[in-house]
Design brief:
The relative contact order is 0.15. The longest helix is centred in the last third of the chain and has 42 residues. This protein is α+β, with helices and mostly antiparallel strands and about 300 residues long. The chain has a four-stranded mixed β-sheet with strand order 1-2-4-3, with helices on both faces. The protein is about 65% helix and about 5% strand.
C-alpha cells in the first residue's frame, strides 16, 4: 500500500526530471542551430526572444482558445448546483480561488482544467460525465481536475506545449532548408547533414515523447491528490472504470471537439480505446490508474 503523499512526491519528482530533460533538449537544439548557421549569442538571443513571445501568447490566450475549440459554455449555477457546490468545497479544501465552470455538450464522459494560474482557472465537464456519474464519482473527477489547478499543472503543461511547439517549428524550418538546398556549399557537409537530421527528424519525436511522459506523470499525481482531497480513492477508481467501459464499447464515439493538442488536458483520453491516437496517448492506461488508486490509503 502507498500513501497519497508518497504517490504525489514520487510523481512530482519524476515530472521535474522529465521537464529538466525537455529543457536540455531545447538548449541542445539551439546549440546545434549555432553549429549550422553560426551567429553565437545573437542566434541564441533571437531564439529565446521568439520563444518568449510565443509563450506569452499561449499564456494569456491559450485557455480561451481551448475553451472555444471545445465549444464549452459557462455553466448556469441555478441549473448545475451540484457541480458548483462540489467545486466550491474542493476549492476551499485546496485553498485556491473557485475556478469558472463550463459545460461541453458531448456524450463522452470527460472533463479538463485549464487557465493561466490558480487565480485564473476553469474546469469544464461534459454532459456525458454528468449523466453517467453518481455524486461520489463526480466529486472524484472534479477533485482530480482541482488537483491540476492546485499542482499548477495547467501552467506546467502549457510550458511543455510551448517547448514542444517551438521544437516542432524549428524542426520544420530545418527540414525545409535541407530539402530545398539551404545547406548547399557549406563546409563539413556530412556533419551538417547529421545535425540537420537530428534537428529536423529526431528532435520533434523526442519532444513528443517527453511531452507525453510529462502528461502521464501529472495524471498520476492528480489522481493521488484528488483521492487525498476527498479521502475516497474508490470513488475516483469507480469513475475511471465507467469511462473505461464507455470507451471500450464499439458504439461509443470519441469527443467531437478534441484533438491531439488538447487531448492532454482531459481527465481521460478523449479518443476511443482502439484509436490510432492511443499509440501516443497523453494518459496512462486506465487499468493502471485504477490499480494504483486501489492501493492507496
Amino acid at each position: 500500500m502507498a500513501s497519497y503523499f508518497d504517490e504525489i512526491a514520487v510523481n512530482r519528482f519524476k515530472s521535474l526530471i522529465l521537464f529538466a530533460v525537455f529543457t536540455l533538449l531545447f538548449l541542445g537544439i539551439i546549440y546545434m542551430l549555432m553549429l549550422l548557421f553560426g551567429g553565437g549569442p545573437i542566434l541564441l538571443s533571437v531564439g529565446l526572444v521568439l520563444i518568449l513571445v510565443y509563450g506569452l501568447i499561449v499564456y494569456f490566450a491559450g485557455d480561451r482558445a481551448v475553451l472555444a475549440l471545445s465549444k464549452a459554455k459557462l455553466a448556469d449555477k441555478a441549473k448545475y448546483p451540484v457541480i458548483y457546490d462540489t467545486v466550491e468545497g474542493l476549492a476551499a479544501a485546496s485553498q485556491v480561488p473557485v475556478p469558472k465552470i463550463y459545460i461541453i455538450n458531448d456524450p463522452n464522459p470527460n472533463a479538463f482544467a485549464t487557465g493561466r494560474n490558480k487565480k485564473a482557472s476553469s474546469i469544464a465537464v461534459t454532459s456525458g460525465l454528468l449523466s453517467m456519474m453518481n455524486r461520489n464519482e463526480l466529486e472524484g473527477v472534479l477533485a482530480h481536475e482541482m488537483s491540476h489547478v492546485y499542482n499548477n499543472d495547467i501552467l506546467f503543461m502549457m510550458v511543455a506545449v510551448v517547448f514542444a511547439g517551438a521544437i516542432g517549428i524549428i524542426s520544420a524550418l530545418v527540414r525545409g532548408m535541407f530539402f530545398f538546398g539551404g545547406f548547399g556549399g557549406r563546409r563539413n557537409g556530412g556533419v551538417l547533414i547529421l545535425v540537420a537530421l537530428v534537428i529536423g527528424v529526431l528532435a520533434p519525436i523526442f519532444a513528443l515523447l517527453l511531452r507525453l511522459a510529462i502528461s502521464r506523470r501529472r495524471e498520476y499525481m492528480a489522481d493521488a491528490n484528488g483521492a487525498r482531497l476527498i479521502r475516497n480513492p474508490g470513488a475516483l477508481a469507480s469513475a475511471l472504470a465507467k469511462i473505461q467501459a464507455y470507451t471500450s464499447n464499439p458504439q461509443s464515439r470519441p469527443m467531437a471537439t478534441a484533438n491531439e493538442i488538447t487531448a492532454s488536458l482531459y481527465f481521460s483520453s478523449p479518443f476511443k480505446a482502439a484509436s490510432i491516437m492511443n499509440l501516443f496517448s497523453t494518459h496512462p492506461p486506465i487499468a493502471e490508474r485504477i490499480a494504483r488508486l486501489k492501493k492507496m490509503y
